[in-house]
Amino acid sequence: MELTDKVLVVIPAYNEEANIETVVEELVSKCPDLDYIVVNDGSRDQTAKICREKGYNLLDLPVNLGLAGCFQAGMKYAWNKGYGYAIQFDGDGQHRPEFIRAMKEKMDEGYEIVIGSRFIHGKKDYSMRMIGSRLIGAAIFLTTGVKVTDPTSGMRMFNRKMIGEFALNLNYGPEPDTVSYLLKQGAGIGEVPVEIMERAGGESYLKPVVAAKYMIRMLISILLIQNFRKRS
Q1: Which of 17, 20, 53, 128 could form a disulfide with 46 if both were Cys (CB 3.0 to 4.6 A apart)?
Q2: Are 232 and 170 contacting, i.e. CB atoms less than 8 angstroms apart?
Q3: Do the beta carbons of residue 132 and residue 150 sit within 8 Å?
Q4: Which residues of 5-31 are buried (b: 16+ CB within 10 A; e: fewer)?
Q5: Residue 117 contacts residue 150 (beta carbons within 8 Å)
Q6: What CA–CA distances, in Å, run from 148 to 44, 65, 90, 138?
Q7: How far apart are the first and last CA of the chain?
Q8: What is the 3-state secondary structure (H, E, C) of the chain?
Q9: Could you list the pLDDT tens digit for every one of the 232 residues in the chain?
Q10: Nearest to 178 by CA among 75, 35, 36
Q11: Of the candidates 129, 104, 92, 127, which has an alpha carbon nearest to the alpha carbon of residue 215?
């Protein structure tokens, strides 16, 4: 297989000492043909130390850049190394490696972005987070005409062209508003059903107040800000 046909699994990790070993070992066990890179986002715990001791492929950022900067670093790595595809794969144990192959098969149908969706066959509950997901999905549909069943899913695969968008441009965070913007630019998007697990250990940064602010920010960005966004 040519490198341009290969998938790089980009694993952003911030303070994931409780999960990173399980995530990488399970990925390597179930998908031994895939390459991966752990992007340590200036963790204050033992995440980087564990990766070094285990001999994992590691991109160790000296400071915390946040998810957007951390993911962009991973995409720059994918771009510079010549990978044809890259998938965002969280370091908290919620994403499952057994669904990566189905996402790649969907990508091979001609899509540029493929999202791992929890809701193609399942229904959303009426928690505040799922209400926010519904609103974001509605905003994306209103502004692009494209239905995305799981706009807040962090399990997303991108082709070479999209890797370049993230690697070479500013303000391309791995968030629903960027997906909405790329749709407006003509990117083809597909979804495949996946299961997302509960966080295995550690603590999520998405507390209720933070989650509410995130949803509001995404809605404002999709409905207003993206209309004025220009490519660099």
Answers
A1: 17
A2: yes
A3: no
A4: ebbbbbbbbbbbbbbbbebbeebeeeb
A5: yes
A6: 35, 28, 20, 9
A7: 33
A8: CCHHHCEEEEEEECCCCCCHHHHHHHHHHHCCCCEEEEEEECCCCCHHHHHHHHCCCEEEECCCCHHHHHHHHHHHHHHHHCCCEEEECCCCCCCCHHHHHHHHHHHCCCCCEEEEECCCCCCCCCCHHHHHHHHHHHHHHHHHCCCCCCCCCCCEEEEHHHHHHHHHCCCCCCCHHHHHHHHHCCCCEEEEECCCCCCCCCCCCCCHHHHHHHHHHHHHHHHCHHHHCCCC
A9: 456 689 999 999 999 999 999 999 999 999 999 999 999 999 999 999 999 999 999 999 999 999 999 999 999 999 999 999 999 999 999 999 999 999 999 999 999 999 999 999 877 776 777 888 999 999 999 999 999 999 999 999 999 999 999 999 988 889 999 999 999 999 999 999 999 887 665 555 556 688 889 999 999 999 998 877 765 5
A10: 75
A11: 129
The encoded tokens of residue 143 equal: 């502004």
